[in-house]
User: What shape does this take?
Amino acid sequence: MLKDLLRTADLDLADIERVLEYAQRSKDDPYGFRHILEGDTAVLYFNKPSTRTRLSLETAVARLGGVPIMVGPNDLQLGRGETIEDTAEVMSRYARAITIRTYSDDEVRRFAKTASVPVVNALTDGHHPCQSLADLQTLLQRFGDLSDVVIAYVGDGNNVAHSLLEAAAIVGMEMRVATPPGYEVEPEVVEVAKARAALSGAKLIFTDDAKAAVEGVQAIYTDTWVSMGDPDEERAKRLHDLEPYQVNDALMDLTRPEAIFMHCLPDHRGEEVTAEVVDGPRSVVFDQAENRLHAAVGILYAVLAGRLEGYDPS
Ligand code: CP
Ligand code: NVA
Assistant: This one.
């Protein structure tokens, strides 16, 4: 049984289908899950800013009948040198689940290794599984069958790209990833995704040609060119190198007529996407944001109810 959700590739297809089923139930019947956390708490430890993830998880905990306890690094003795392991052990004695947003994936893995309650990655430098599950829900609502979806991710090969790629590989989508040289997705993630694609029939394409990548797709996805944790001194170079990968009307015109524009938000109008596109009729960014809540309910319900089996490569 899978205790934690640290990256999307921890899940197998049945897990994803289960989370999406719960997420849809959360949308259709928002107060139908109230029993599972009644009288209990879940800790949200956030070491980076957040709007959607924090608010969706706090609301999800309330919808599950519990009380969210939000803490930052300066609220905890962790900020004064208490170990991750001791912190995780203590949190497990109070709360029924721990969600963590921080920089290093290793920190979250250490939390999960010691914690006896489920740990959910609420974004690290490497992964953003909660976002990818909400995005699958959005694609499912739009297109009905995920294995028929053709999506292009254009821009920086970052945490959001990693989790979307793993999600696409598990559910059998066609995903084309267009990144400039030096901004490719991590080779380890590509390897994991290819192994999962071999099982699902997903088609994964990696290129530096944004125009070729988006030709005929049903969805274009992009994310910020400067993520939290990217050094400030890299900012100008990043904007320069990624500029040819901006999602604008000319790029959208190469897609299918029904194609949608996706972004995890926050967006930076005039950088990775133009205002015309993100504010235009093909944009589904606020449906994605809403689905963060439903997916959060689905994920927390699944881990709390012990309903995730997890991927076993053996
Ligand atoms: N998409 C997303 O994770 O947004 P926040 O950083 O606002 O949580
Ligand atoms: N890639 C972005 C996503 C923010 C939701 C970051 O890590 O800052």
Notes: The pocket of norvaline (ligand 2) is lined by residues 123, 158-160, 223-224, 227-228, 264 (CB under 6 Å). Strands lie at 41-46, 67-71, 97-101, 119-121, 150-154, 174-178, 203-207, 219-222, 260-263. The radius of gyration is 19 Å.
